[in-house]
């Protein structure tokens, strides 16, 4: 007799289905049980409002979490950057697998790079974080671009460029890779130009806190270095008291000597969406060995950013 299938809760988007399908295969391998995808529609999927208006925080995960708590699914897969920074007591992130490419990318007309965009180029993105950093980059390099707020899935966003309505759109490299469309990327944006969203490129596999057997099985998919990095990034976000849609970028990367990982560098940025003001700082230290050490790294950098005026740049998220 075959064991009952595990039910994996996922959003319905092509990207969510692709990344959940990849996790389903991995979970099936470690548990020896079949995994079936249960499609769940979230508020963020059906709302046509801009993320900054609906608050951003948790709009893509609340319905999945409710299904978990009600026992309709056994575990759920989230894009980690969509997860609120406060973790409900009844749920646990059992695994953070190895991270995909955390960078942002551009899909542009005529295969242009960011530096090739003509004066007055219209660049589409729904993210205040991307707007702030792209506008700041343009200001400091004598470029003239207009950032245009957009919503929609990958097809919709790229469609704006194909139809000639926009000169470029900004997307996450991880998403393009996961749906097999990285060949459409025309420019990979250096993290020195645009820092990604905290947790970008990473997935969170979540289940109920009382399911010890499943927690133990999922833990085999956990990557400790990815978890340390995203914990530091999300701690920074939480300490700035910013939601998923606030103009905050953060990236913890590992510094190696060629052989082994030596240190972790955490960079954070917050800016006004017009790019006129950016607070950007970094800190480097030993790779955090514990959850608390990673949290401390994020909190300390956030505290420095707040003394440099970061708090005044976050007010935009409420409008």
What is the number of helices? 10
Q: Which geometry do the CA atoms define?
A: globular
Based on secondary structure, the structural category is: alpha/beta
The whole-number mean of residue pLDDT values reads 89
What's the story with the biggest beta sheet?
5 strands, mixed
Q: What is the CA-based Rg, rounded?
A: 19 Å
Strand order of the largest sheet: 2-1-3-10-4
Strand percentage: 15-25%
DSSP E strands, number = 13
Distance between the termini: 57 Å
Extract low-pLDDT stretches: 50-56
String of helices and strands: EHEHHHEEEEHEHEHEEHHEEEH
Proportion of helical residues: 25-40%
If you had to describe this structure to a student in words, what would you say it looks like?
By secondary structure, the chain is an alpha/beta fold. The protein contains ten helices and 13 strands. The strands form three sheets. The protein has a five-stranded mixed β-sheet with strand order 2-1-3-10-4, sandwiched between helices. The chain has a five-stranded mixed β-sheet with strand order 7-6-8-5-9, sandwiched between helices. Strands 11-12-13 form a three-stranded antiparallel β-sheet. Helix 9 packs parallel to helix 10. It is globular.
Summarize the helices and strands and which ones pair or pack.
Blueprint: E1 6-10, H1 14-31, E2 35-39, H2 43-46, H3 51-54, H4 62-69, E3 75-79, E4 91-95, E5 104-108, E6 121-124, H5 128-140, E7 145-148, H6 154-162, E8 168-172, H7 173-178, E9 187-188, E10 203-208, H8 212-218, H9 224-239, E11 248-256, E12 261-271, E13 278-286, H10 291-307
Parallel strand pairs: 1-2, 1-3, 6-7, 6-8
Antiparallel strand pairs: 3-10, 4-10, 5-8, 5-9, 11-12, 12-13
Helix pairs in contact: 9-10
